[in-house]
Amino acid sequence: MASTTMTIERVMAFNGLDVLVARDEGLFAAEGLDLRIKALAPEEMRSTADGALTRPLTNQGRLVDRGEAVMFQG
What we know:
Layout: E1 4-9, H1 17-24, H2 27-30, E2 33-38, H3 62-65
Parallel strand pairs: 1-2
């Protein structure tokens, strides 16, 4: 079976536990999916404390916006 590669943004431990367990158990590989998890470079990370209620800051979705990942955890 040919493998398909999918890159997603880094998952947070509690919200993305299902993804991490499935990866570790080999469920993605069993379906022919090479799952890659990518994180922002440390110098690109922004603190959410710098945002405001009317203008929140987030690091999620930035790799998707640049085309470096196909999915992020919202």
